[in-house]
Amino acid sequence: GLRIGECLALTWDDVENIDGTTFISINATLKEMKDPATGKYCLQRKDTKTECSKRKVALCSAATVILEEQKKAHPGAQGEDYVFLSDEGTPVMYRNVNRTLHCMLKRAECKNQTITVHALRHTYGSYLVSNGADIYAVSKMLGHSSVRITETVYAEVLNRKNASTASIFD
């Protein structure tokens, strides 16, 4: 459910294990910027989208396994090093993440091959809401500045949930 820039900005200092649960602290984003002098794109570390975007998120076990694999892939990584690096050891660019996703969709012969990484953020939120997660908790996890934003973005999912809730009285 992270914004792509938030994910790419994660450093090993942002990862902690508390009582067997892995947490990540979201406190920055990587923005892809075009250098006017060279015309090349580079990543710059910036503040999060909003102050509410700064948050601590508990990870599911599958995400924890992915972090462990990242650590093994870059055994010399220190606290301030980025978690997600290219094969060359440089920060990953957004377009490379989307390109990799599109290759995976093609290889899996998915019907919809236009999905973006950002769409997966919405899938995450929709899944949580439709499976009964508290809307306030989802809002916090997604880093929305208010629960109203979460309600607006996931209104369709909430409406379907409300319709099925009404049937409880039947």
Q: Structural class from helices and strands?
A: alpha+beta
Strand content: 15-25%
Helix tally equals 7
Order of helices and strands: HEEEEEHHHHHH
Counting DSSP E segments of at least 2 residues, the number of strands comes to 5
Low-confidence stretches: none
What general form does the structure show?
globular
Radius of gyration: 18 Å
Strand order of the largest sheet: 1-2-5
Largest sheet: 3 strands, antiparallel
User: What's the mean pLDDT score?
Assistant: 87
Give an account of the 3D structure:
The chain is an alpha+beta fold. The chain has seven helices and five strands. Strands 1-2-5 form a three-stranded antiparallel sheet, with no helix packed on it. A two-stranded antiparallel sheet has the order 3-4. α5 (135-142) crosses α6. The longest helix is centred in the middle third of the chain and has 14 residues, at 94-107. The radius of gyration is 18 Å and the shape is globular. The two termini are 35 Å apart.
Q: Key features?
A:
globular, two-stranded antiparallel sheet, 15% strand, three-stranded antiparallel sheet, alpha+beta, 170 residues
Topology:
Layout: H1 4-8, E1 15-18, E2 21-26, E3 29-34, E4 41-46, E5 55-58, H2 61-73, H3 94-107, H4 117-130, H5 135-142, H6 147-153, H7 155-166
Helix pairs in contact: 5-6
Write a concise synopsis of the structure shown.
It contains seven helices and five strands; from the N terminus they run H-E-E-E-E-E-H-H-H-H-H-H.
